[in-house]
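Exam revision sheet. Question 4 asks you to relate a sequence to its structure. Input first:
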Amino acid sequence: MVTVSVPGKIHLMGEHAVVYGKPAFLAAINRRLTVTVEEGKSNAAGYVADILHIVQKHFHLRNSPDMSISIISDIPAGYHLGSSAAVAVGVAAAVSYFLKKIWNPVLCNQLAYEAEKIQHGNPSGADNTVVTVGGFLWYRKELEFLRSFWQLPLQLPAGLNHFSLIDTGRPKENTGEMVAIVKLRTQNSMTNMKKLFDENEEQTKRIAVALKKGDEKMLIDAMQKGERTLEGMGVVSKKVIPLMRSIERLGGAAKILGGGGRVAGAGYLLCYSHHPPEGSIPITLGEEGVRLETKI
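Answer key, structure tokens:
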């Protein structure tokens, strides 16, 4: 039996723009998913079966022994906390160890990225990378074969420990559909979208600097301005914008995470506020990445 755990993630900024060569700044959070692989009747289906096939293909296995794969998660699917990336990394890591006694997070990240292409069409690769390595991640995808990332040596200052999640409801659209919407808008209005991507990059950099320096004023301003670029990209439901503005009026900031949503909910919002709305869920940023828990 092999058990692996993987964290969820949030985008501090850079979602959608990262698909067009801009940087994304992400953090692993204190919600985890656990994958257990053990001898038993094979039960892989859907996305898990896709991941299993990718692992088998990598190791040139025409057949593999019967194995039961179980997943326990406190990362809700469809809410932009990296659920599918965590599943991909966790299953790839657990199955690789079960089959070959190999613990290689770099390889598992690569296999997970191939699985994420099946799930999302044109992912940046940022989600699977941050849940693999953990901590705070600066990520850029220049080309399909040129993806670079840096684990930033950040320790979140105690004075900035005011992050939480706000549930606005599961989006009607999945991440792949939201990426396609931005792609169409970019094709139809390249000049305008380029300005939004450039501004998003500037605010992504400011957020990283703010966390490094412990500058709360800069952090809030950059989150607010970065969120406006996401609204300009058309990935923020009008139903959640009033909530964001109300948080801003109280001196805080809120933004969508990941794909966002257009017609109903936008999944979880990332909120930074000393006075978060009732029902907000406090979170810790910079958690450990994929972890081998048991190997019996």
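Marking note for examiners. The first helix runs from residue 46 to 58.
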